[in-house]
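Board notes (copied after class):
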Amino acid sequence: MNMKQPPLSFLFLLVGIFQINAQVSLDPVQIVVPEVSPDSTQVVGYGRVKNEADETRTYRWIRTIRSLSDGWETAVCDTNLCYLPFVDSMEFELSAQLEANLNVYVYPNGVAGSAVVDVRVVDVNNPEYSATASYYFNEQPSRTRQKQRLQQVRVYPNPTPGIFRLSDHEQIRQVVIFNLVGRPVHSFTYSPGDSYDISKLPKGTYMVQLQDKQGQILVTKMINKQ
């Protein structure tokens, strides 16, 4: 059976798309740094950026801190300099086909914790050319996605006159209510779609702690009882 050949214009379009996506690259795109000690002065996640074009290009890196433990600091080092922690973006130039360092540092400052930092590199003159790398310190990509899903769990209505619900999540097994002193005042076994009655509690702000089947804390939300 004869099959029609794709027109040359279509092939050129595919080549063009590939070239657009390959103008700048980061390697690796996920940098995982485990076992960061609070006693470490600084810890680095090593990355590389490459200008895949056939001419010199000016790029801008943009740092996005997805999570950073209290007391920790983070900073970016590119081919030019290592910047102070408050610097979130900077331009740099790369010659054709040249690679350079794009490293992320964390400073634990004696505190146990973790961090997730994204660095996006954009061609200044052609913003459609970009690439992103993620740096994980004492975190794993799958665990980070899990934390993000947990942060999206909703407690509603909030404020509540006494009855509230939770948006569904497969890991939740127990719902424990704490007052602001940290004392547990009520607990419920979680079931998807259930409602939870705190109408007998005094008016005020409470913490809703969501736990898994081992009793480990998944996430804590705040709720206002009217």
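Comment from the instructor: Residues 153-225 form a domain with the Immunoglobulin-like fold (CATH 2.60.40.1930). The chain has two helices and 18 strands.
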